[in-house]
Amino acid sequence: MSNGDSHEFTLPTWRQPDGEPLSCVEKIKVLNENLEEIREMAQDALEDGILMGCDEAQIREVFEALVASLENPYAKKD
Fold first, then answer.
1. How far apart are CA 37 and CA 25, in angstroms?
2. Residue 11 pLDDT grade (very low, low, confident, very high; cuts 50, 70, 90)
3. Among 17, 28, 67, which Cα is nearest to 45's?
4. Rounded distance, CA 18 to CA 57, Å?
5. Which of 36, 37, 38, 59 lies at a C-alpha separation of 20 to 30 Å from 12?
6. 15 bridge partner residues
7. First to last CA, the chain
8. Do the beta carbons of residue 11 and residue 35 sit within 8 Å?
9. Structure confidence by residue, pLDDT tens digits, 69-78
10. What are phi and psi for residue 33, nearest 5 degrees?
11. pLDDT digits (tens, 9 = 90+) for 39-57
12. Burial of residue 34 (number of CB atoms within 10 Å: 0-12, 13-18, 19+)
């Protein structure tokens, strides 16, 4: 579904914690593939929600809350 009001999405330059860009081509490929897959799933979920009568702004807020709830299982514990 497209209403001509889509926003461009540009794949990021993936960086290490020290700010240096990742250089491993395979890692970058996997990260980009993961991001594209997530984007497609989110697009489908947005379209489903709108077709089922949900408010678009609320759906986008829920997506943001979902991302904010993600946990890093590799984070150092204090």
1. 18
2. very high
3. 67
4. 35
5. 59
6. 21
7. 46
8. yes
9. 999 999 887 6
10. -65, -40
11. 999 999 999 999 999 999 9
12. exposed
**Is residue 50 within 8 Å of residue 56, measured between CB atoms?**
yes
The CA distance from 67 to 37, in Å, is 15
| Contacts with 9 (C-beta within 8 Å, 6 or more apart), sequence order | 39
Amino acid found at 55: D
Residues near 24 by beta carbon (within 8 Å), at least 6 away in sequence: none
Tokens of 7: 């926003």
Task: Give the residue from 36, 67, 69 showing the smallest Cα distance to 28.
Answer: 36
**pTM strictly above 0.85:** no
Burial readout 40-49 (b: 16 or more C-beta within 10 A, e: otherwise): eeeeeebeeb
